[in-house]
Amino acid sequence: MTASSKSLTKLLVAVLVIAGALYVAFFGATLFGRTIPGALDKQAGIKQGLDLRGGSIITYEAVADTATDAQMATVISMLRARLDKLGYTEATITRQGIKKVRIEIPDISNPEEAVKTIGQTAKLTFVDSSDNVILDGVDVKDARQQFGPLSQSGKSENFVELSFTPEGKAKFAEATGRIAALPEGKNFIAIKLDENVQSQPRVKEKIDSDNCIISGSFSAQSASALADLIRAGQLPFALKDVELRSVGPTLGERAMQTSMNAAIIGVILILIFMLVMYRLPGLLADIALVAYIAIVVGLLTMFRVNLSLPGIAGIILSIGMAVDANVIIFERMKEELALGKTVGASIDAGFNRAFASVFDSNITALISAAVLLYFGTGPVKGFAITLGLGILTSMFTAIVITRFLLKQIVALNIRNPKLYRAGIKGGISNV
Amino acid sequence: MFDVIKNKWIFFNASIILLAIGIASMVFLGFNQDIDFTGGTTMYINVGAEFNNEDIIATTTEAIGKAPSTVQKAGASNTEVVIKTHSLDTDERAKLFSAVQAKYNLPQEALLSADNVTATVGDELKWNSMWQVIMATLLILVYITFRFEFKSGVAAVIALLHDTIFVLGFYSLFRLPINTTFIAAILTITGYSIMDTIVIYDRIRENSRIMKKAPFSEIINKSIWQSMTRSIYTPISALITIVVLYIVGVPAVKEFALPIGIGIIVGTYSSNFIASPIWDILKGYKKAKTTA
Questions:
Q1: ipTM, interface predicted TM-score of the complex
Q2: pLDDT (mean) for A25-40
Q3: Residue B128 located in a structural domain
């Protein structure tokens, strides 16, 4: 095999690999028995933010001067239980600052209804089999998840320990005495949060004590969740919805569609622009740009980055900026060619001289992205991630991939400087 | 070759005049702050047919007992409406939408989006945003000082302030709403505008090594012109995507694309005609002092 046919093979393989990568990045593939999900895959593809798939972001704030960590944990358990009850199992809850929680609910049809039900003050009641209220949240002093043996010979297990106020103790003693005497099937107490039964322990005997234990087949997690929910009934504050962002499914879909159109049109225009301005190197930069798109889309899918509308806008903008490194490098190459160097030497000098410039300028852009990532909230964070990924990837594609392709072209003996010297400066000095 | 350094006052004066107008506007007119910062409710509704703003204002006033702060047509055929009011609670929001729904006989899906921010949250977002811009600027100053020199960092930061004030002034003068998306756009501008400056700085650093005898102003001027093709091509490429986004995008994308587009243009201008000449002035100041 001659050197030039070797280069041709390398070049063709590179182009095929990039084309394949682009296809896999968007549509996925099954290779060697392993499935790689594509970005467009509904389940495993890019995670669409609420502004693209439709949904609501609700921020609640505790109506109090401050709130403890324990209280906020209780709030989160309570909200989680309510969201699950309403069927919003995909919702996420995060604490924000000291006394705020942020809930993100995808695919919600009536956000106003949800805002009201989810944020209600929790109503905790203990009722008997005929739904008579025995005691409520005020009568419970505390609820804790515990782990240990319940009897002397028993093995350790998870349980919830309740402690009562003096009134609570009296009410509980009276009720348990009455209920323990009831026949099987009616001898229980139901613990309800709002109108939902959270736990329904059986009463074996009268309990006249400050404490009582709810045991059963609890895991550490379920016991602590129940304790949290019981404590929710005695939160010293109400929740107020201080922020709501709600996007209907129609707008989300439209946002996604128009952004995709913008991306396609923008990419085509940039490909043409580079080809016209730089001819052969421009074509190689275009191939590198396609590789850039494949890598960024692949990374976003792999890391399951939550892609918001500003995030998509950021990616599209980054495609425009991704050619920057190539523009810097090609301009240097043209200067070297104008000095009378050979094509090969010009390529090397162009890349070497441009490197510091590309590196420094990208690092400063990365600093901005890092600040956005650290201080931003919600969609801004997603935008920062796409921006940062874009900057790092474009450095790789512009420097490594373009250089590799250029080397192969030179080895193919395509050395007519005219093909490398389009543009203002090259054109003029060529005459 | 046009001498940028000799003619720097043409650019400085142009910038001073434009920035003065912008600052005057910020002082006297202030900003059209969106609900993100002031607190308030925005409802974006698809009316599905032509409508009169007056009707929407009347319907809103009747539903919530107070006139909306703005009513704006949106969508490709102006059949959608964006209503902005003071911060409404859940019941008021429901009432407002039902009123519009009843008036134009709309389905539930007609509510394209709803946002509500209370005033205290708005304040926090505002401070957090300002903090972000300051942090990014300081870190960039540190990096440039480390890679080049402190004076060049100061010049770059002045150019960045120039860009930020220009875009802020533009938004104030034309009463465009500023919100958290706008702040993200400003930070993006900060990142990209500094890239232009760094590319020229890098050339200056390299030329300084080769042209040891030449005066600094000559080195700068040469570097600016050597980088000029790149200074034009890259922004064009970025603007291509931004313009397309602005044309086809939904309102939220337009809000993001506009300040970035303006920022890219002014950022390119300031990298060439503000940052580099200021570096020269700062450098000359030190020389004058040591020779005196």
A1: 0.86
A2: 81
A3: yes
CB contact under 8 A, A258 and B109: no
Could you tell me the CA-to-CA distances from A212 to A146, A168, A169, A222, B241 in Å, in that order? 12, 11, 10, 18, 66
Confidence band of A227 (pLDDT split at 50, 70, 90): confident
Inter-chain CB proximity A368 and B140 less than 8 Å = yes
Tell me which of A193, A224, A247 is where a domain ends: A247
Do B46 and B176 lie in a common domain?
no
Q: Domain range for residue A170?
A: 55-247
Are residues B64 and B86 part of one domain? Answer: yes
A-B CB pairs within 8 A amount to: 209
> Out of A273, A313, A371, whose CB is closest to B135?
A371
Distances in Å between the Cα of A32 and the Cα atoms of A16, A26, A35, A43 are: 19, 19, 8, 21
Q: Is the pLDDT of residue B289 over 60?
A: no
B191/A367 Cβ within 8 A: yes
Could you tell me the CATH number of the domain that includes residue B77?
A: 3.30.70.3220
Q: Tokens in use for A206?
A: 């009268």
Preferred mutation among A60, A118, A264, A361 to probe B, highest tally of B CBs within 10 A = A361
Q: Does residue B2 lie within any of the structural domains?
A: no
Which chain A residues touch B183 with a CB distance below 8 Å? 380
Whole-structure pTM over 0.80, yes or no? no
Domain boundary among B117, B150, B168: B117
Q: pLDDT tens for residues A149-158?
A: 877 777 888 8
pLDDT tops 90 at residue A296: yes
* Domain extent for B125: 8-29+121-291
Q: How far apart are CA A412 and CA A4, in angstroms?
A: 5
The C-alpha atoms of residue B71 and residue B77 are separated, in whole angstroms, by: 16
A262 → closest Cβ in B140, B196, B249: B249
